[in-house]
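Quick one: Fungal specific transcription factor domain-containing protein from Purpureocillium lavendulum, structure tokens please.
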Amino acid sequence: MPLTREPASPDRVLGGDHEAESEPTGRLQPTSRMTGHQWFYVFVLDGLGGMALSGAVNFGIAYAMYTTQDTTKRPIRLFGLPNTLAGDAAVTIIVQCIITWFVEMALVAHDLAHRSVHPVGWVPVPKSRRRWWLRWWFFLPASSSGSSSMSEEEPDAEAPVERVRANSVNAVFQQAVRGFSLAVPSFLLLWPISVGVLTAVGRKEGNDYVFADKWAPQVFKLILGGVLGLLTTPLMALFWLVRAGWEAGSPAGPS
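--- reply ---
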């Protein structure tokens, strides 16, 4: 009986005298439920990691901003210009949300491409045209029928969800608008609390409050940046994981 050789497995690549397994390519498959690793990725790596990084960056910026100028001529006040902590808090919330949006967009795309995390596949694609604002927010395509996305009629079929790329000025602007839209509720929640806390630690002077050049401004920015990162970064990471599931062909939801 002649000797026969089994055909090579499609998962293996032969090279010389060595046999090596081929590397898997492409993104992992979406999950039908939230896995433990996804919870860890969203709330520990992104949430706590974003809190630590954002707090540290804001602390460093505040230290450089308020300790390198003559605060006897330009005192640090709560509301009064030019060194206003209330204004600083407002700018911090807006700028951090926009920057974090772009950072999370890039980081999640990198982790998906390197198969470090599964896309979320259990969230259905909103397909009703009456939910046009969801289509705008999630960068969903218009219906294949070509009619207005605000029409009351339902589309005959859904166009595939394609990957979002910030490869033009308009695309970058669209991303920045979404980052800013998260800054609005963050401002409404955190800015009044920030002002209230600062009135408790500042020195009353007329109708305003005055602060030393350290350490109150730095600790304030540390806490504000950290809390903002903890609240917004997991939401942004989850957004891109959900959308990656739709790009992989997750089923559409009810209209």
